[in-house]
Amino acid sequence: MTDxxxxxxxxxxxxxxxxxxxxxxxxxxxxxxxxxEDFVPSRLIDEAKTGWFPKLIxxxxxxELCSPTTNxxxxxxxxxxxxxxxxxxxFSPMAFGGALDAIVSIQIKQESRQNRLEWIDxxxxxxxxxxxxxxxxxxxxxxxxxxxxxxxxxxxxxxxFRAAIDLLNSVGIHPVVLPDEVDxxxxxxxxxxxxxxxxxxxxxxxxxKSRGVKTIVTTCDxxxxxxxxRYPRYIDDWDFKxxxxxDFLVEHGGKLTFLSAKETVAIQSPDLxxxxxxxxxxRKLLKSIPGLTVKEIxxxxxxxxxxxxxxxxxxxxxxxxxxxxxxxxxxxxxxxxSTRMLVRLLEGRRPGSWEETSIEIxxxxxxxSGKHTVHEEFAGA
Length: 381
Ligand code: SF4
Known about the structure:
Layout: H1 3-6, H2 41-49, H3 74-89, H4 99-109, E1 135-138, H5 142-153, H6 158-170, H7 186-190, H8 194-210, E2 215-218, H9 221-234, E3 241-244, H10 245-251, E4 256-258, E5 264-268, H11 281-287, E6 293-297, H12 313-328, E7 333-336, H13 339-348, E8 360-363, H14 364-369, E9 372-374
Parallel strand pairs: 1-2, 2-3, 5-6, 5-7, 7-8
Antiparallel strand pairs: 4-9
Helix pairs in contact: 5-13, 10-11
The protein binds iron/sulfur cluster.
């Protein structure tokens, strides 16, 4: 049985048919119900089994809190249902006014080469364009989000990837970063545009394979979910190991040491969507920073599901409450371990949104990168 098969509440088939299952979601654990009383996971499953896919399922944030066991995944079911709804409705992802979707359409047509690596300066070490390497870094849309959003949110998403390369360099890795990588396809998947999704996945597979990559690391929760769980279902020969960067860094433990930091940070408690294997790597890595106090956020939940296309009133209120809960910890900074989530929170905090919270929002990797020292074994890497 594959990892994917085990992680499947209802025996969801690739063709979006739902089989009977024995395990039911635990409705009372669902955070979305607080914002929409008519959102009841078990009811949505019953409706989906009739073949009529409920639109409401788009509000699912993929937190896994309703999944009764680690082998039973509601997000797996919701993911397929959302895609089926998208197909039925001929839904078009309109993230950032459709600008991102337009970029993806150009990538699909492959009419010109991209110029997407200017943010990698000489201080960072990546494999040369013709060089092979075991480890690839999946960057996603960040170079485009720098332009679409950077000025508005006062933060360029590629800064997290600069930090990622710096951290990888510090453990002796010069990652492969593809000059023509294409969007992972999460939004197209949820729109039910499987043709586009498969073109994008095949393209990424071919480019990583041609560079000899065996392990792909990413700093984005949705790219991680797509590359690890959606691609193996639809992309032939997708046999890469896909890891969150934080898990990769813990696996290479002992090679990364940190300077002392007398400050207090807040982190989200791990959930299965972002920490699928229950590795708790964020906490483990932060524990290795001398003097750092880590507070866990109680209550409140960021939206952890769906690509850029999933912006709605429920996620907005969830994210506001998440930041308020982070504020209540008394920490100065909340660390976000996903670039997508980080950008969404910063984007939502623009004037007029949730200015009532004051906690600083920072990316985990930028934070770690500013604090590590180079292990002597890798000095000069
Ligand atoms: S995964 Fe989370 S948001 Fe989705 S139905 Fe379950 S508890 Fe609710």
